Amino acid sequence: MSQLLALVLPALIDLLTPAIAALIAALLYKWTGYQAEQKHMLALQSALQNGARLLIAGKTVDDAITYVERSVPDALANFRARDRPRIAELLAPHIAALSLPGKPAGLSGAAT
Question: DSSP letters along 13-79, please?
């Protein structure tokens, strides 16, 4: 029995080692890729929120878009949202949430 194990076990280990290594690598890539995406999402949401706050401070929508472009270029690239109309679209809910009563903030000044 031990001679059979001595013959089979090394071959089995040689066969399973690459598969286990590939599985570990795939899981690690999936986990770190998810972490990077989450980081980009949080950074983009923060920049959009801050961009919307610029409107309350008297800046224009163009200023808010420019702020977002400069703040998180990697996140915008990750989500394929580098064009100004798309950024304005992403800003809209943040602007609506921060609109003051009687003084609605709109996207009429957004560049296309």
Answer: HHHHHHHHHHHHHHHHHHHHHHHHHHHHHHHHHHHHHHHHHHHHTT--HHHHHHHHHHH-HHHHHHT
